[in-house]
Amino acid sequence: MAMPMRRTLVALHRATCRRLTNAEVSLDVRHPGPLFLPVRTKKRYFIPPAVGMKTKMEGFTEAKARAAGIVGKQENIERPINISCTAGVFDPYVPPEGDARLSTLSKEGLKQRAEQIRQSATSQLAIRKIKEHDSLFKTRDFAERAQEIFVEAHNALTQFNKEKLHSLVTERCYPEMTRGNRYKTIRWSFIESLEPPRVVHARCTDMVAKGNVYGQVTVRMHSRQTLAIYDRFGRLMLGSEEQPKDVLEYLVIERHLVNPYGRWRLHGKIVPSWAPAKDPIIKVTFYSAPADNIYLLVRKRQRSKPLSLSKGD
Amino acid sequence: SLESKAWEKKNLKVYPPQLPDEPRRPAEIHHSRRQIKYSKDKMWYLAKMIQGLSIDEAIAQLEFNDKKGAKIMKEVLLEAQEKAVKNHNVEYKSNLYVAESYSGKGRYLKRIRYHGRGMFGIMDKVYCHYFVKLVEGSPPKTVEKTSFDQAKQYVQNLKSRTIIHSL
């Protein structure tokens, strides 16, 4: 696709010649538009755009301007951010060791049962402060409401209903719940509650400004649940749908008390130090081909001794 | 559209949970690298070389290949293997094979190549994309058909002809 370059030069030459003949133009008088147009104005050649010109120009202006001290128009640095939840759990509740593992008839069990929230003074103060802002607060009703919030939030997680989930769960808890779950199917069901939920702990904290009060209440609940997580291809990854598990949980529910439209939302869970989250057991569910090959290889080498390898499960 | 990322979107498809009596669905991982500074025709040779091999074999072949594209392709395969184990719930990293592998044309830059007598040509600075699809499991064994088999098939076809409307 070689095109003659000469045509460009000829055209330029012609244009300059024409301009020179026009006496008015040579006297440096500026016309609004050309009076004489050359006949062949159609561009019949192609020059690919010279790359590097544009990028050089951009870098050139910014650096030079900054060095010269010229301050350009400032872009919007201020951006209002609405904080409607705290960053973590303040003064986390330390659950007593062996909670729900001892029978209630033993001495320690009785001690635990007798433990009332009235023992802790700070919790009482916090509850009083919460009642200042929300007069209808009652510990007994609140515990049941907390369980309802928990169940609804997990149902919304299975359907992945973002709006509902945001209204039931704080912004700090949302990524914890949904990380890595977007392309997975979760099936969760709440079978029954083994013990009535109890409020065990309460705290009130201020964020940023003095009067900006947030209330955090910890609820202890013992329940039976089933959880099954399927990966992107519909294969069972974790848990099982038929096998229910007894779960003892300490939920932290939070509310922005000063805000009249604030709602009690799930803020997080407290994992006791004596019951850390264990890794799921590695269960080989199918008999894979590489294992087969290794078996044959080993079998070939030791022909005298017959081997028996346990295959999968 | 020139910037369509259809290959990457295939990784976002979610299947409904399988019933217990269904056979286990093998995991599929789609990975690609865009705008590689290499020719798509030269890349094609390497892509078709590793198509159908298990991932360990493919990586081994690319490691000892002298071409420039082989090094890049090996990086892409290792990335894809890591993603498979981390994000797509693949149990064993060696239990994968290359199901599809091909190269495509990227977006070229154009420059002037000067010829004599004031002539010029437009030079393309070539770029290519490379796409690979890994599937869980052992590679499928292709039954090689020998020439004798084909001849036998031909004779069989001839013998099984029927003449219609005959006596």
Automatic annotation (TrEMBL), chain A:
SMART domains: Tim44. Residues 123-271 form the Tim44-like domain. The keyword Coiled coil does not apply. InterPro entries: mtLSU_mL45 (IPR051975), NTF2-like_dom_sf (IPR032710), Tim44-like_dom (IPR007379). Signal peptide: none annotated. Component of the mitochondrial large ribosomal subunit (mt-LSU). Within the mitochondrial ribosomes, required to direct the nascent polypeptide toward the tunnel exit and position the exit at a distance from the membrane surface. Belongs to the mitochondrion-specific ribosomal protein mL45 family. This is Large ribosomal subunit protein mL45.
UniProtKB/TrEMBL annotation, chain B:
One of its GO terms (biological process) is translation. CDD domains: Ribosomal_L22 (cd00336). It is found in: Mitochondrion. GO terms for molecular function: structural constituent of ribosome. One of its GO terms (cellular component) is mitochondrial large ribosomal subunit. SUPFAM superfamilies: Ribosomal protein L22. Keywords: Mitochondrion, Ribonucleoprotein, Ribosomal protein, Transit peptide. The keyword Ion transport does not apply. Its main location: mitochondrion. InterPro entries: Ribosomal_uL22, Ribosomal_uL22_bac/org-type, Ribosomal_uL22_sf. Belongs to the universal ribosomal protein uL22 family. PANTHER family: CHLOROPLAST 50S RIBOSOMAL PROTEIN L22-RELATED, LARGE RIBOSOMAL SUBUNIT PROTEIN UL22M. This is Large ribosomal subunit protein uL22m. It comes from Lates calcarifer. The gene is MRPL22.
